Amino acid sequence: MGNPWLALEIGADPRRRAGQLRRAHEAFVTGGPIPGPVRPVVADSWRRSAGALVSPDVLAPVDLADAELEEYRRAHPLAAVMPVLRDLLGAVADDGEHVLAVCDAEGRLLWVEGHCGVLRKAETMNFVPGASWDEAHAGTNAPGVATAVDHAVQIFAAEHYSSLVQRWTCAAAPIHDPRTGILLGAVDITGGDHLASPQSLALVRATARAAEAHLAGLLPPQSARANPGAGRTEGRRAFLRALGRDEALLDAGRCSLRLGRRHSEIVVLLAGRGDLSAREGLTGDRLSLELYGERTVNPVTLRAELSRLRHLLGPELLDSRPYRLRMPVEADYLDVARALDRAAVAEAVRAYRGPLLPESDAPGVARLRDRLEAQLRAALLAQREAGPLDAWTRTPWGEDDLQAWEALLAALPDSSPRRALAAVRVAELRHEYGLPAPGVPVRQDPPRATWLQRRRF
């Protein structure tokens, strides 16, 4: 396919493809591999959804309603572009076949508008304002995928992870602050299978660009709404998303800031493990060692990176001498570590979205990444519960983990449909690693190729 973000290539039969996708979806959610007809962007989203333990018949939860929802919408930057979105997509939303939806950067729906009849149908799947349609709560869908990967995308029929949504097709495009590049949310149109066309994807993409152009003329420079570092830091917190991502997202207030790779490494190192030493900061020499190792690097290089980062975040967030983050920063990898500290292994697996900054070779980041994965695997193998092991082996980083598959095979009841697949996978991996046939225990970790190593290869 020429464009991987389009649901159907030119000339494809929608009905035939929908049938193929239904069979592929059923095979995956019952423990099988993902077959060829599934696009890579959808396959990746299915794996993320399964890794978050999303049910195949999940109903998106409603988090905001009534006065709380109204207050949040009024304060959100996208409220300013709703007239533009309605002007460009209003006719589509009023035609009795579609709805217009706008979500925030976390995939939470803020506005859902259209013909009353279509809205009533959308309500049956909780496609309503205030509902969380990110992948971790609703599985694969266009607003959730668009905000997760920061790209315009179509999701067609049974490409949706939840079976309750599979009679719909949707197209969504992210909207950014035009000055800072912060992800503000996404605009979406949802309707029937006819939306699986190049025109619908081009329409939402053009609408998103028009919204950004409108914002460029409205938002004042250094707006506190668009600059996570602006204003006072007392009582404020930020959240860093760095698992399974090469470029971290820093959520501060109601905006998300995508960091470059080096800036992502710096913020991860300054956040550390959330302990006192991280809050006390790092000297320039120590930060250089954590970033570059023993390589000879001109100190000016690091100072330049930190100067650009301070300009991006604002002086209220980044201190120097020593370098530290002034605002308390939580992080997804810290959530995993805390869950492991409480022996909440299932919670840790749900929170683990992949290796920490997987492409980073900064020694400090690599140490944090390896320690977190090792602790998570050790907890999984020690607890040996089928649910967390099943979730782990469905992910790209756990699908070749022989010890996890063997532990899963031992934990599954004989009646489980997943047991036969686990037995086959154990035999395949033992053969791949040059180990004896099943029945002979593995006495030490096999020399498995990790997901990160396979990705780099």
TrEMBL record:
Gene3D superfamilies: 3.30.450.40. It comes from the Bacteria. This is GAF domain-containing protein.
